[in-house]
Amino acid sequence: MTQHEPLMAVEVEGLEKIYQGTGGRRGKQALKGVNLAIPRGSIFGLLGPNGAGKSTLINILAGLVRKSGGHARVWGVDVDRDPRAARAVLGVVPQELTLDPYFPARAALEVQAGLFGIPKAARRTDELLEILGLADKATAPARSLSGGMRRRLMVGKALVHNPPVLVLDEPTAGVDVTLRQQLWDYVRLLNRNGTTILLTTHYLQEAEALCDRIAILADGQVVANDTTAALLRGLEDQELLVDLAEPLASVPDGLRVFGPDLTSPHRLVFRYAQDGNSVRRILGAMHAADLRISGITTRQPDLEEVFLKLVQGQS
Ligand SMILES: Nc1ncnc2c1ncn2[C@@H]1O[C@H](COP(=O)(O)OP(=O)(O)OP(=O)(O)O)[C@@H](O)[C@H]1O
């Protein structure tokens, strides 16, 4: 590892953003002390419902929004101390397609490289067209490209300056299944070639398919931040809903070890791993505690449900 390759591609500490209310609009604290570290070489998913603060965070990294507090570093560069250098190490693919319909692909990439001040000899326009599968469309105006090609051209524009970190903002919002798969393959390819990817999405399935790590943002705060594998292991837990013949005021001592919720006087809810043994142990303990059972149901919480639970816990 060289000095130029930090362990963390993005580091955010105590990040705060307060939008001041203007013209009768109320102010809003969009980020409430966010800490995140995105390892170099990873595909990192930033998830959250509408208004959680994802765009605000990305825009701070990209130098488009001024933060109210905390620190943000991209590829080791502090976005406040050296905004130009920070912009040079980051590529952003925005949510909206922002292409001039009459501009050919090659020209779009050339203009973008010009904006970054890259001398003609150092530009990688043809290489990018090749990688993006757009070489034979280099002179075709953007409006004649398919939806997938346009998306790839947007990615190309974000890569003209060869940034080590790429942000994809909702890359597959409103995109059909085939195109989604193509984009995912392409993101994986970029990542294999060394680019660290930060991806925002509303779709848990997308994050699950692509990301090594996932952070969930809700109402300006990080409510989960773990490897995708660890998050999914948590999600694999089953729920055992036990209806009781007689009401309970509190969880009996003999059951506390299982950490159940007494969701009503007549219902205990247990979460357990699918190891084949847990239900037997829970029911044994219920029997030992002399509790009469009037009904049992099991339930597998799905991804959306756990996501919502985490998110709603905050609001
Ligand atoms: N310029 C602004 N002025 C005032 N409030 C704003 C401004 N931009 C965003 N907000 C508010 O800040 C909060 C976070 O918004 P942000 O766009 O960062 O969320 P998001 O997670 O990206 O949402 P989405 O998934 O809908 O894009 C929201 O309540 C939003 O209304």
Automatic annotation (TrEMBL):
Pfam families: ABC_tran (PF00005)
Domain of life: Bacteria
Record SMART domains: AAA
Keywords, ordered alphabetically: ATP-binding, Nodulation, Nucleotide-binding, Transport
Gene Ontology MF terms: ATP binding
ABC transporter domain boundaries: 10-244
Presence of the UniProt keyword Nucleotide-binding in the record: yes
InterPro entries from the UniProt entry: AAA+_ATPase, ABC_transporter-like_ATP-bd, ABC_transporter-like_CS, ABC_transporter_ATP-binding, P-loop_NTPase
Similarity section: Belongs to the ABC transporter superfamily.
Protein name: ABC transporter ATP-binding protein
